[in-house]
Design a protein that fits this description.
Blueprint lengths: L1 E7 H11 L10 E12 L2 E11 L17 H14 L2 E7 L10 H17 L5 E6 L4 E6 L7 E2 L2 E5 L4 E3 L1
Parallel strand pairs: 1-3, 1-8, 4-5
Antiparallel strand pairs: 2-3, 2-4, 5-6, 6-7, 8-9
Helix pairs in contact: 2-3
Length: 166
């Protein structure tokens, strides 16, 4: 199975600018991308990230054990977008280093229940998590008709110049 994620350069730039901003107490920022998808072949998925959504400062929880934690209002807003836009949602954050990012233990524990809540809201959309680094990306996606997350094959920033986040 091939899964390609495509991010318009303007959305990618907006996400990086937001995720790189300092927060009064959180060590990192979190956002969401709205998603749409299509099939490029029998077993080839193309997931398009259509819009970036920043999390307002007052929707973070002051938790010294987490790099960042968001409250239920931020999660409800993402779930509401699923219903209003008929789109998927992708939780995104930034590990600001070179090379392929890997999910932390907390990411591995907390992302699946969030993604499953998004899937329960609309199981006909693509949901999941994306971690960006300075030159790469990691994504686990829950695809319609699949119970377990699937890793992406390629993440592409679409624009000029085209960027491949391997």
């Amino acid at each position: 199975m091939k899964i390609s994620v495509r991010i318009p350069a303007v959305c990618y730039s907006a996400a990086l600018a937001d995720l790189d901003r300092p927060h009064p107490f959180a060590a990192e920022r979190i956002g969401f991308f709205s998603t749409s998808f299509g099939m490029a072949g029998r077993d080839e998925w193309v997931v398009c990230l259509t819009r970036y959504h920043a999390i307002p400062d007052d929707q973070y929880v002051d938790d010294p054990c987490a790099g960042a934690r968001i409250n239920s209002r931020a999660i409800r807003a993402a779930l509401q977008r699923i219903l209003d836009e008929k789109s998927g949602q992708l939780h995104v954050h930034l590990h600001w280093h070179l090379g392929r990012p890997h999910p932390s233990r907390m990411d591995q524990e907390e992302l699946p229940p969030l993604a499953q809540s998004m899937c329960a809201t609309a199981n006909n959309q693509v949901h999941g998590g994306l971690i960006l680094s300075r030159d790469s990306a990691f994504a686990d996606l829950w695809l319609p008709g699949h119970a377990d997350p699937k890793p992406t094959t390629r993440v592409t920033v679409v624009g000029f110049p085209m960027r491949f986040l391997r």
